[in-house]
Design goal:
Elements lengths: L2 H25 L6 H23 L4 H44 L1 H24 L1 H5 L4 H10 L11 H21 L6 H23 L3 H34 L6 H32 L8 H20 L4
Keywords: Membrane, Transmembrane, Transmembrane helix
Protein name: Stage II sporulation protein M
InterPro entries: SpoIIM-like
Length: 317
Amino acid sequence: MNIQRWIARREPNWQRLDALLKQIEKRGLKSLRAAEIRELASLYRSVAADLARARTQQIGNTLIQSLQSLTTRAYTQIYQGSRRQEWQAILEFYKWGLPDVVQKTFAYIAVATALFLIGALVAWWYSWQNPSFMALIVPESLITKVRDDHKLWMGSIVGVEPLASSSITINNLSVSFGAVAGGITVGLYTAYLMIFNGLLIGAVGTLVGQNNLAYPFWAFVFPHGSLELPAIFFAGGSGFLLARAILFPGKYRRGDALKFYGSQAVQLVFGIVPMLIIAGTIEGFFSPNPSIPDAIKYLAGMGLFILLVMYCSRKQT
């Protein structure tokens, strides 16, 4: 190989890559046009091949070190820059994307919420009218503890907070993902989960109310429930979005409808996960803590819910 001729032929590529890298290092990756970004990636691969050839042919240490420096700089900008862009995209989604998709899919979330509330009202009504109805939904051991011992059951969390928190989060995630996956049953399983969870909270709420334990019970529920319940409603909305795509694709072909509504459902799921992690942490460490006054727990729950509503209502200007 004629080394001088090879260097002369390849050197313009090295100089061009160096110029692009200097621009990025000075003004950032966003300063490049789309065509220049593609050119950067192509030049990086080309110069990396030149470096390998220079090492194989044992062409001067100075040139090898220069090409090594050039490829290292290019690698750093391409791959670390890509990771920075990914993190920026994630932050941008949670800043504006999630509130936007919540607003666009609010009707589906509202349906899930309504089914939950209907279940809660039905359980409340029948539990007062017919005490035996409660036993169909609430475990007998829990009923006995509240009625006979006049105690709530959440004290068992104290002392095992990390284990309880992780267990609670996993359980809530499984319920939420079940509600999302229920969309493939044309929403029937999603509707069942919403109604059943409503029946459960309604029956338990009636049980503690009948035994004068409502105030401490709701003090326990409010802090984590302010995030946990909306997350479950978001999951229900996701399931109904998938059901809509299957049952009523509208102007889309069913496959295209699944892609469109499925994309919105996935975005809601991205919102559900951090909400449930935070709620599980609160439920494990804050909600059952006997040293925190009940009034503070009520204020914390209401504050979190107000912040969530404000966050989901924001619009990008």
